[in-house]
Amino acid sequence: MNNYRLRKLVYSTLVCLFVVTITTSAFAQGRGRGGGGGRGSGNAGGPPPGVGVDRGLGNASSRSNGRSDEGLITASERSRGRSDAGLERARLASDNLRDADRELREHPRVPHVLRVRANDLRAGYRTALLTNPELKFGQYVAATRLEQNLRSRFPNVTRAAILDRLADGDSIGDALRDLGLGNDEAKAAKKQAEREIKAARN
Predict the structure, then answer these.
(1) Tens-place pLDDT, residues 17-48
(2) How far apart are CA 145 and CA 154, in angstroms?
């Protein structure tokens, strides 16, 4: 009887030790993987805090005190500005080309005076608008006539050279002076071209 009680006591003791051992092991694993802020803490196998999205654009605003937001807004505004400017340039060039078509219909003698076909004059003007959408057809015609009148005496005076200076914001008079004409010569050449073009329009 005594042996039976002894065996039962030993058995109970071993069971208690086993349960304590298992509980302690599980608690230690829980602290290492879940409860102690490790990889398992609310993250189920994902990266630890501060890795991945948390280190990128998701928290850029808070880390930069809003500077990143301002940068993104500025970039967007700048991009939109370029887009708006491009559309405006295209619209302006289209309007000017339409004015040129009307000018050629209403004054068909202008290409004849310039000794150029109307289609070639229109095509040249369309090409010039790619560089300077603000260029008026009258300016293109004047540059063409000035080259014809002056190039034999002033080799630098070409239509392309005049158009380049107009694109930079110069007037025709400024362009002629920059290309080698004196002040009086530039005025006289400009007036002559204007008279000839006006006669072709009448």
Answers:
(1) 544 444 444 444 444 444 444 444 444 444 44
(2) 14
Structure confidence by residue, pLDDT tens digits, 47-85: 444 444 344 444 444 555 555 445 444 544 555 556 678
As to burial, measured by CB atoms within 10 angstroms (0-12 exposed, 13-18 middle, 19+ buried), residue 184 is exposed
Give me the long-range contacts of 192-196 (CB less than 8 A, separation at least 24). 192/149, 193/142, 193/145, 193/146, 193/149, 194/142, 196/113, 196/145
What end-to-end distance do the CA atoms of the chain give, in Å? 141
Give this prediction's pTM.
Answer: 0.59
Catalogue the E-assigned strands of the chain.
none
132/175 Cα distance (integer angstroms)? 15
